């Protein structure tokens, strides 16, 4: 009887501890980063009014990644900011090793803050004998020791279901929409660059209180080449604002801009959360009918790619507020209401 009561009390104590963990019952907040986007991590720490965590993250001459955390994080609430952008595999390994180092240093909780989730496009088997790499990355993050994930605008919503840990997906839609609200576009229409992004584009159209149009396109092969086919909706004489979650080679974006120009729009603006801007994307944007491409700093945009048409907004306040709320056990969803 006494043994049973002891087990019951121990179980209740463990349950209370889990509930306490969910409510942010952790010691001091600590933020660390790898080499993917240190400027964004510093901006997040500036928002939180805390110093960025001290850590060595580098490669040995044999190309092995090494991490050493240079301060005590025992029972601390640790957030590791690292986008898995180019070089994707190096940044992913840095993130995994940072998580492992934090776990072995007895961190109280480890949140992987991945503003851009690489391999997000490989989220399903759409051809024979191909992987679902987005799921593999989720398994790697969990196995490394992450207790939760904080990210922005996943390429596909179902990626959240690949994790067995809590996932908070933020959206830069409000940040981008506020910019264009302040800009005051003349007779705007929001244009989804493909059918897959239609729901988010509709949310943007509601924020700007304007109509929605859709670009119908066909992707050809696995080489990032896409052909825009048709504009669904009335856009003639209006100011078009295209919306997408990421821009890689710029093929889809600039094809959409040319298609809209042929349909008689006055101006074409574009907003994108993740500016991958690989290959000749920046020059394609410069040569396109786009008046302005507005992106965020989930991925760093080097100066040589900022060609006068590309404008970068910071998501540091968005991430900083989400981190504060997670640490204090407050609702993250309330940020968007």
Please provide a brief summary of the model.
The protein is α/β, with parallel strands linked by helices and 337 residues long.
List keywords for this structure.
globular; Rossmann fold; 26% strand; five-stranded parallel sheet; 9 helices; alpha/beta; 2 domains; disordered N terminus; 337 residues
SS-based class: alpha/beta
Reported by name, the CATH topology of the largest domain is Rossmann fold
What composes the largest sheet?
Answer: 7 strands, mixed
Parts with pLDDT < 50 across at least 5 consecutive residues? 1-24
Order of helices and strands: HEHEEEHEHEEHEHEEEHEHEEH
Instruction: Estimate the mean pLDDT confidence.
Output: 90
Gyration radius, in Å: 22 Å
CATH architecture of the largest domain: 3-Layer(aba) Sandwich
Description:
- The protein is α/β, with parallel strands linked by helices and 337 residues long.
- The chain folds into 2 domains: 173 residues, Rossmann fold (3-Layer(aba) Sandwich); 141 residues, Rossmann fold.
- The chain is 34% helix and 26% strand.
- It has 9 helices and 14 strands.
- The strands form 3 sheets. Strands 10-9-8-11-12-13-14 form a 7-stranded mixed β-sheet, with helices on both faces. Strands 1-4-5-6-7 form a 5-stranded parallel β-sheet, with helices on both faces.
- Helix 7 links the parallel strand 11 and strand 12.
- Helix 2 crosses helix 9 and helix 5 runs parallel beside helix 6.
- The longest helix is centred in the N-terminal third of the chain and has 21 residues.
- The N terminus is likely disordered.
């Amino acid at each position: 009887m006494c043994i049973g009561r002891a087990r019951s009390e121990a179980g209740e104590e463990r349950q209370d501890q889990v509930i306490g963990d969910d409510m942010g019952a952790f010691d001091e907040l600590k933020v660390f980063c790898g080499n993917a986007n240190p400027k964004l991590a510093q901006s997040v720490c500036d928002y939180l009014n805390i110093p960025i965590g001290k850590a060595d993250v580098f490669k040995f001459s044999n190309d092995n990644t090494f991490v050493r955390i240079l301060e005590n994080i025992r029972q601390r609430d640790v957030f590791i900011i690292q986008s898995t952008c180019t070089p994707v595999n190096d940044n992913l390994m840095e993130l995994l090793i940072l998580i492992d180092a934090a776990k072995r240093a007895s961190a109280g909780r480890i949140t992987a803050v991945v503003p851009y989730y690489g391999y997000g496009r490989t989220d399903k088997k759409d051809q024979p004998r191909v992987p679902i790499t987005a799921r593999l990355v989720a398994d790697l993050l969990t196995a490394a020791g992450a207790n939760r994930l904080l990210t922005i605008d996943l390429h596909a919503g179902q990626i959240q279901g690949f994790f067995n840990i809590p996932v908070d997906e933020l959206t830069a839609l409000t940040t981008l929409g506020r910019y264009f609200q302040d800009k005051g576009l003349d007779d705007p229409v929001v244009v989804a660059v493909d059918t897959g992004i239609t729901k988010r584009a509709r949310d943007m159209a509601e924020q700007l209180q304007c109509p929605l149009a859709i670009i119908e396109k066909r992707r050809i092969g696995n080489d990032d080449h896409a052909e825009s086919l048709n504009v669904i909706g009335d856009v003639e004489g209006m100011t078009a604002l295209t919306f997408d979650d990421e821009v890689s080679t710029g093929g889809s974006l600039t094809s959409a801009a040319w298609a809209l120009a042929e349909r008689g729009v006055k101006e074409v603006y574009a907003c994108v959360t993740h500016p991958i801007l690989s290959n000749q994307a920046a020059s394609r944007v410069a040569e396109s009918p786009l008046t302005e491409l507005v992106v965020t700093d989930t991925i760093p945009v080097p100066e040589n790619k900022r060609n006068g048409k590309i404008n970068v907004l910071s998501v540091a306040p968005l991430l900083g507020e989400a981190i504060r709320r997670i640490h204090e056990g407050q609702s993250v969803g309330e940020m968007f209401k």
